[in-house]
Amino acid sequence: MGWTVVRNQLDEESLLVNESLFALGNGYLGVRGNFEEGYAPGINSIRGTYINAFHDEVPIEQAEKLHAFPEVSEKLVNIIDAQTIMICFDDEWFSLFDGDILDYKREINMDEGYSERRIRWRSPQGKTVRLHFRRLVSFRTKELFLQWIDIYPESACRNIRVISYLDGDVTNAADPDDPRVASGHTKRTNTTDVFQDGPNHTVVNRTFETRLETAASVRIRTSRTPDVYSCEYHGEAVVEDMTFREEEHIRVSKWTVYTDTYRHGPDVKSEARTIHNELADVSIADVLTGQREYLHGFWQSADIQVEGDANLQTGIRFNLFQLLQSVGKEPASNISAKGLSGEGYEGHYFWDTEIYMFPVFLMTEPSIAKNLLEHRYSLLPAAKYRAKEVGHEQGALFPWRTIKGRECSGFFPAGTAQYHISADIAYSFVQYYFATNDMAFMSEYGAEILVETARLWIDTGHEKDGQFRIDDVTGPDEYTCIINNNFYTNAMARFNLRWAVKSLALVQDYSQEAFDRLVMRLGIEPEEIFAFQRAADRMYLPYDPERDIHAQDDTFLDKDRWNLAATPKEKFPLLLHYHPLTLYRYQVCKQADTVLAHFLLDDLADETTMRKTYEYYEAVTTHDSSLSYCVFSIMAARLGDQEKALRYFSETARLDLDNTHGNTKDGLHMANMGGTWSALVYGFAGMRMSESGLSFRPSLPKSWTSLTFHIRYHGRIIQLYIDHDAAEYTLVHGEPITVTHRAAPIKLADGTAVRAVL
């Protein structure tokens, strides 16, 4: 139960949404869920194939360019299309928009790692045929996109013709009415080579500005030799045409290998040939076995079981599956806001990674989490350059949106001004240390990141009246921009500064030699460490004593409240219908801001202040961002309101499956998907990590029977089973360990379940 998603709609809106829902990928390669044969004339499609981090550079047009405004953006490129396969029965082309559909089922199998369409179709002239389309993007051979079609004629048919296309003439999608989708620069590659190499046919494309190359090389296999075969090159496309004259089952499989400059070096063509040769004796069954084994290992660690709501269970697994499909699994790439499922936000990486998606992999597949951190570390030189570019004498200002390290946000009030991203990245390095106790990594990577980001805060802030203040920044709430002392930013900066000091002490205890190298390389003086600690100790955190809440910033509570109840439904999201200045002048939040700080930093407030703050901001938050629901769910659970937590969780768990934000067609909401996991583990299970260890405050909503999941912590695998009476902790693997259950220590050892009353 809960391992498949089925969608049988054929209307235009559903088809576009399903292209995202049925996207397949492996973190390197992603292919949208388009029909092989295409749609009816006039029906829109976003036909896309993407390689993580494979991008071009495009100009940012600034009407009034000022100093350090970015001039160039990086853009994920739609690459060579290998999806198209046309089938003709005598002189009638198969299409779900012609003839009669006698039976149709489309589903994605999340435990097997492939999608399929089963069709029984009658042509306009009365021929009946069964078709079984299947496809996958391999987790074992990251370059492989495999399609196979079984054709079963049920009526007399003289000729069955199958035509395969490999097309280099591709463009990116555009939407001039939505700032979340690019509105120009749609053609970003040219085809530089089309050729035959033995049984392979290959197209090579090159980006206009970055001069990166990708090759797509196809090898067709058939269950029996075609009676007629031809191959023609039409401009930028390869067209293979096969005709079969016997009325029996035919299987046609299309093995497409993608290579690119980043991972395979300058000779992408020979690398594609090498991979094809390695696959020559590999069968479809072999690939399926590898896919199944890989996913079995993933689900053993990552699966979360919710008893009591089958729809939510499917949503949870779908979100985890899509995160796995989109996350980069080597330091050359990260995970973008839309993953590899679409072109929303142009393939850029945001703070979404560190705060919303990184925790999933940190606690289930820490090797992937480590790669994500190494990727961020690789962008440190660019972040240090960006800090100087905008006027800082020191520190690292990580870009708001980027692919290879360049700031790609053309709207600085809600982009570059979100300095908190540097603290978010620092926070994730500390969380990795909490979860793994990996001092070698802290010594080699983490301490440097913490020091360079701490330097940014020293250079950005200033002391006034004995307090350290940070002016003119934007917090997570993009409906309130360029303000002084954003609570979230200041709180995260304080954490960043404190851990810069702690990390240096940890490295020194770990290895004096490593510490000395680090101090020399970064030019750290004792006075600087003192300055970090002083700024942290004096950090100003806005607080309103009359309301007993933390103020979002210095002026937020002075503004009039936006009347959300009187705002027409069609005016949401507000960013598409109101000028930013209008939004900035009201108490209205796009997403969780101060509430998010209370989740990430659990020691900022006592229970009463935390609750009052939550209730205050809940009333002025639109949740126009998909990043918001999960945070409110987590904090509702933390404050003991499980039913409210469930309502918010229900919004996050199936946001894309139900297209509740109306823009799933542009790609899946990856941060929201990560937030689903967090709402379960940090919310209902109440998990928190700190220097002192791992703790839980479990509780369930009434409608659920139980919640079960695994986490990895300090080399152990721990299973947690929660019902309405108790939580059951089991050490599945590793040395004995003590965790905390509602402030009481519990020792786990030897695979024995320990049951603790709620």
How would you describe this protein?
This is Alpha,alpha-trehalose phosphorylase. By secondary structure, the chain is α+β, with helices and mostly antiparallel strands. The protein has a domain of 294 residues: Glycoside hydrolase, family 65, N-terminal domain (Beta-galactosidase, Chain A, domain 5), CATH 2.70.98.40. 32% of the residues lie in helices and 25% in strands. It is built from 19 helices and 34 strands. 49% of the residues are buried. The mean pLDDT is 96.
Gist?
The chain is an alpha+beta fold.
CATH superfamily of the domain at 4-297: Glycoside hydrolase, family 65, N-terminal domain
Helix content: 25-40%
Biggest sheet: strands, sense, closure? Answer: 9 strands, antiparallel
Strand fraction equals: 15-25%
- Structure annotation, total helices: 19
